Task: inverse folding
């Protein structure tokens, strides 16, 4: 590592300590040229994969887009913020655990649909109607039937009409 004072390449690690949480390492260094000391921090750098869209274009993964998708589907639905945050974290963890450098946007959409089905059936139908480009009422009816027969339980009250 270069010395920030004299820009020399020859620095020596004098002391190394792990952070209390164990997620970073603090190193105290000494420049062998100018004898000045400085501290560096080492942390793990995790990168989310690139998203490959249907058009074939690639873009950086954007957690805010993921949050927006959930927010739109869950608009005015009685789902606690903690559960939404946990669902978003689950999707991000699944994407990261794929271990791929690129992930298809369709795959992310499927993950979102699974989490929405667990959270709220109405939100699932909302998202599915856009995601799957429903053409008519028959598409909605098929989706409602699929939700009704789904082994994944969520907020079942939300799938029923409130008459």
Result:
């Amino acid at each position: 590592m270069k010395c920030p004072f004299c820009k020399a390449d020859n620095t020596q690690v004098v002391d190394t300590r792990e952070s209390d949480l164990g997620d970073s390492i603090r190193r105290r260094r000494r420049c062998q040229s100018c004898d000045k000391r400085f501290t560096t921090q080492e942390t793990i750098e995790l990168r989310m994969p690139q998203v490959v869209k249907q058009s074939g274009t690639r873009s950086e993964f954007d957690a805010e887009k993921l949050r927006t998708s959930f927010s739109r589907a869950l608009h005015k639905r009685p789902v606690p913020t903690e559960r939404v945050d946990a669902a978003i974290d689950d999707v991000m963890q699944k994407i990261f655990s794929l271990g791929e450098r690129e992930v298809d946007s369709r795959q992310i959409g499927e993950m979102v649909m699974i989490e929405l089905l667990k959270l709220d059936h109405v939100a699932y139908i909302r998202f599915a109607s856009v995601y799957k480009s429903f053409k008519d009422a028959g598409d909605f009816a098929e989706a409602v039937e699929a939700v009704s027969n789904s082994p994944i339980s969520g907020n079942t009250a939300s799938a029923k009409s409130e008459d």
About this structure: Helices lie at 63-73, 81-97, 105-119, 121-131, 137-148.
